[in-house]
Amino acid sequence: MARALINVPAKAKRGDIIEIKALISHPMETGYRTGTDGALVPRDIINRFICTYNGEEIFSADLFPAIAANPFFSFTTTATESGRIAFRWIDDRGQAYLETAEIAVE
Amino acid sequence: MRGVLKGFALTAGFGGALGICISLAIAQAPPSERKSGFEFMSPESQATQQDDFSNPGMLWVAEGEALWNAKAGATGRSCAECHGDAAVSMKGVAARYPVFFAGSGRPIDLQSRINVCRKTNQDTTPFPLESRELLALSAFIGRQSRGMPITTGEDKRLDPFRARGQELYEQRQGQLNFSCANCHDNNWGRRLASSVIPQSHPTGYPLYRLEWQGLGSLQRRLRNCMIGVRAEPYPYGSQEYVELELFLMTRAMGMPLETPAVRP
């Protein structure tokens, strides 16, 4: 179960540099830890994060086991047009978690 | 006698190679010098706590809000159906816990109080203590009092329990034979390895500890310290923890609640 908190300004002027923040709830299990039975806990991490602005990729990242639980990203982009900013986190099982935010550019 | 443990030097060996010498004299910081753990953190950690979009504790708050509005149990009622808008009904509530609970004649903390409600009003099984759901609901309720002054301990019926909490706080325990006060009253602001020792003012629970990579209660934090001095921790929900919580929250009376806080 994943839950995300994203922050995109609702309004911006054309050409403004805007900050985008994305925080997702995820255990980021490294695969190196042992459980109470002594067996390794299977690796379960988000390994890819992609952000698109009206379909065009503006930021992406590969994630690795050394990244802590509940990964947080903060990055900037230029407000070019009104539309949709979409976020996609993909985990080791191939499951994707999606979030979107609308931005109005004047 | 409270107040003096004079001229005592203690040497504790770490890994057989290092030794520390600490002189001990119990003295709680006067009210004007009381500090939240927030003030001992790096500016980066402080910024993480202060921005709701970077504070990972807000993930639990969001989950707690969903649970607040979800129907549960045989009665099929949600928290919201009885309590209404949490921003109104729960404002200030977390700032006064633990409270005296007439049903048991003892103090009760917020997590256990939520479970009482689940059992009696929703007619369903209580959440296990320290479970994600119970922490989420506690964080959501705590969030409604953020910034409000802590008022725990105003009820006179709590006095004997608070006194027992204080005894526990000042009692030496564990193989290292430390009391809580030895570090948190006597050596706050100094370092234990690389970590700054804060004063024990539990102003932000349940809080997100970077070390835990998750949200945890004050009881979990107390367990950490007990394991640290190599004492046997009490089980979750034990009366001793509730009395300690009561004593610590009363010490922090008047300080603003920070739930959900972030700590290293």
Automatic annotation (TrEMBL), chain A:
Organism of provenance: Microvirga aerilata
Pfam families given in the database record: SoxZ
Limits of the Sulphur oxidation protein SoxZ domain: 9-100
Annotated coiled-coil segments of the chain: none
Record-linked SUPFAM superfamilies: E set domains (SSF81296)
Protein name per the record: Thiosulfate oxidation carrier complex protein SoxZ
NCBIfam families: SoxZ_true (TIGR04490)
Superkingdom assignment: Bacteria
Gene3D superfamilies: Immunoglobulins (2.60.40.10)
UniProtKB/TrEMBL annotation, chain B:
BP GO terms, sorted: sulfur oxidation
Signal peptide residue numbers: none
Localisation: Periplasm
Cofactor(s) required, per the database record: heme
GO molecular function: electron transfer activity; heme binding; metal ion binding; oxidoreductase activity, acting on a sulfur group of donors, cytochrome as acceptor; transferase activity
Binding annotation for substrate: 221
Residues annotated to bind heme c 2: 180, 183-184, 225
Pfam families, A to Z: SoxA-TsdA_cyt-c
Key words, A-Z: Electron transport, Heme, Iron, Metal-binding, Periplasm, Signal, Transferase, Transport
Active-site residues, Swiss-Prot/TrEMBL: 225
One GO CC term, this protein: periplasmic space
Residues annotated as binding heme c 1: 79, 82-83, 117
Record's cofactor remark: Binds 2 heme groups per subunit.
Annotated Cytochrome c domain residues: 63-150, 164-257
Catalysis: reaction(s): L-cysteinyl-[SoxY protein] + thiosulfate + 2 Fe(III)-[cytochrome c] = S-sulfosulfanyl-L-cysteinyl-[SoxY protein] + 2 Fe(II)-[cytochrome c] + 2 H(+); S-sulfanyl-L-cysteinyl-[SoxY protein] + thiosulfate + 2 Fe(III)-[cytochrome c] = S-(2-sulfodisulfanyl)-L-cysteinyl-[SoxY protein] + 2 Fe(II)-[cytochrome c] + 2 H(+)
E.C. number: 2.8.5.2
Subunit structure as annotated in this protein's UniProt entry: Heterodimer of SoxA and SoxX.
Family: Belongs to the SoxA family.
Family matches, as NCBIfam families: thiosulf_SoxA (TIGR04484)
Protein name in UniProt: SoxAX cytochrome complex subunit A
Organism of this sequence: Microvirga aerilata
Gene name of the record: soxA
